[in-house]
Predict the 3D structure of the following.
Amino acid sequence: MELSKFYLDTGIESGSDEAGRGCLAGPVVAASVILPPDFYHPLLNDSKKVSEKHRDELRYVIENEAIEWKVAFVSPAEIDIYNILNSSFIAMHRSLDQFSTLPDRLLIDGNRFIKYKTIPHICIVKGDSKFASIAAASILAKTHRDEYMEKIDNEFPMYKWKINKGYPTKKHREAIKEHGVSPHHRLTFKLLPEENQLELF
C-alpha cells in the first residue's frame, strides 16, 4: 500500500516519530521531517518493516531531499526523571525546535502528544505505515539511534549494543546481571526479570 503524502492538501506538514522507547539503555531519539510534495521512494515505510541496509539507503535519500529534517535525543538520565512517554514528546519538541521554518501542522505517530507551541497536531496510530513524512521520521530516528548505540558499544562491549541496540534481549539482561549497569542504562526501567542488587559503574 502506498503511503499518503499529506493529511491535508494545504499548508506545510511535518511528520514526527521516535525510536527506542522500549529499550533498557540509551537515549530515546525523535525525528521530524518535512518532505517536498513530489517526494517518493518505493522502499519508504515504517522503519520496523525495512531492512537495515534499506534504512541506511533511505536515510541518505531523506536527508538529501527533505525540505527540512531534524533529529533530537533525550538521555537515559532525563528519561529517569520525566518517564519514557514524556521523554518521547520532549525529543519530538527538541527536533521541532531546530526547524528554521515552522510547519502549519504536525503529524505525530501514536495516540498522544503534548501540544507544541500553537501548531495544530494530529495523532495517528501506526502513522509510520500510513504517511510518508512520519515514515521518513521513523527512518531517521531509528538510524541515528542505532548509529549512537553502535558508538557507545565501543565503551561497553559486554552489553552487545551493536547487536541488540539496547533492547531487552536475553543476552543484554544476562550482561546486566553479570556486570551491573552502565551510565547509559535507564535506572527506572525493570532491567532484570527478578529483583537483583545492581552495581553502578
Q: What stands out?
A: The longest strand covers residues 13-19. The radius of gyration is 17 Å. The chain has one domain: 13-153. The helical segments are 52-65, 76-82, 84-97, 132-153, 161-164, 170-179.
